[in-house]
Amino acid sequence: MRPEELARRVAAIAGEKQAVDIVALDMRGLVSYTDFLVLCTARNQRLAKAIHDDVYARLKADGLLPDHVEGEREANWVLMDYLDCILHVFVPEAREYYRLETLW
Q1: How far apart are CA 9 and CA 89, in angstroms?
Q2: Which long-range contacts (CB under 8 A, 24 or more apart) does 53-61 make?
Q3: pTM above 0.70, yes or no
């Protein structure tokens, strides 16, 4: 799966699971560690975990596993690193505090 397709798929799965404020940032030419960042907000920790679980299960069914996952237990900010695409799932307070989309 091409990086663009992966980013679209991840964003679509998150959206189907009620994520809001979904943003896909094309990072090619800006950073060397990924091609796309997908950022989204879950209204609470339980939903953030559910988004993680659904993205994980559906991409696993496609034969894709994340290289690295962080924050799954606390679920204030869940990071799923698929190398070409990194998903960040935030609760509202964490998204406002870190404001990743303003870095680029």
Answers
A1: 15
A2: 54/13, 54/14, 54/16, 54/17, 55/10, 55/13, 55/14, 55/17, 55/80, 55/87, 56/80, 58/13, 59/9, 59/10, 59/13
A3: yes
pLDDT along the chain (104 residues), means of 10: 97 98 97 97 98 98 98 95 98 97 87
Q: What gap in Å lies between CA 47 and CA 36, rounded to an integer?
A: 23
Calculate the CA 10 to chain-centre distance: 7
- What the block records as the tokens of 67 is 């290289």
Contact 51, 65 (CB under 8 A): no
Burial track 60-87 (b if 16+ CB lie within 10 A, e otherwise):
eeeebebeebebeeebbbbbbbbebbbb
